[in-house]
Amino acid sequence: MFAGIDLGYNAVKAIGDGDRRAAFPSAVGTPDRARFSLNGAGAGAIVLVAPTHVLIGEEAVTQSRFLTRREDRKWIESEEWYSLFLAALTELTPATVADVSLVTGLPVAFYGDKNAVAARVLGEHRPQREGRRAQVLRVTQARVIPQPFGSLLAEVLDNRGQIADQALAKSAVGVIDCGGKTTNLLSVNRLAEIGKETASVNVGGWDLVRAVRGWLSQHYPGLDDLRDHQLAEAIQAGELRYYGEPVADFAAVIAEIAGDLAGQVIAQASHLWNGGAVLDAVLVTGGGALLLGEAIRAHWKHARIVADPVHANARGYWKLARRQFGV
Description:
This protein has 327 residues and is an alpha+beta fold. Helices cover 35% and strands 26% of the residues. The chain has ten helices and 19 strands. The protein has helices at 58-63, 79-92, 114-121, 149-156, 166-169, 205-219, 228-237, 250-272, 289-299, 312-325, and strands at 2-7, 11-16, 21-25, 28-29, 46-50, 54-56, 67-68, 97-106, 123-125, 128-129, 136-146, 172-178, 183-189, 192-193, 199-201, 241-242, 245-246, 281-285, 303-305. The strands form four sheets. The chain has a six-stranded mixed beta sheet. Strands 12, 13, 14, 15, 18 and 19 form a six-stranded mixed beta sheet that branches. Helix 4 (149-156) packs across helix 10 (312-325) and helix 6 (205-219) runs antiparallel to helix 8 (250-272). It is flat and about 50 Å long.
């Protein structure tokens, strides 16, 4: 099986063979469950019973009594990170035994940890999910690349891993990957990274969540107690209710804060890329592209939001796995 896994601070996105895909919040919690439900809630919950017993993703956000969410560099060494990784693999295949050729990514600021990540994912993994037999999933081949490169590869490569867009492959491209903790700025010329024009900006989706939470604490007491992922979901939808009534000015506040954050990203990218005039294209990707993308696109006439920006990195990773490890 070929797999592309984008394991971010906000969400996990995974792409596998046969267009199998998964996306769930990067949340790991205690395995508390609803005791009664008439709507089938929780039927698709990701519950790992081995190697540790935890609830993963959306159900963890809503049901777990204790929830873990981290944003630090050492996260890749944690049990929470490993649980999310195993959950992604089990979403891509129900097979009892499978060999996996994997590509994943790291933020550009943390790319020096690539060998540590490769060492952690390579080898045999024995997860077991609730309601399933134990699995033996062997990652036999793995490559770790700068995170935003996945979105460029998603645009350049076809599903066999062959170059489909020759013009873009030969171009100078800037990629703006709006993530949860940081926004990665990647400069590429003819599919090679330009290191001096690549950096991370400490602006991401969680900054938007924190700013909105601060506003809610002043105007709508009680709503600021929402868990991070619950508030992030409301921001994504542009809708929140207070005592059963819509918060009328919620969308406007989000747009104002998002505009300010996009301004910081634009300023840093403009400085790094000398205004962006020498680039042939600017690609905007990541979950934050849905909130910051329009403001960024409006600044550069050659900028565009990539198709399905949430899954774009994972899709590019999967295509690279096909290209590098395919027969």
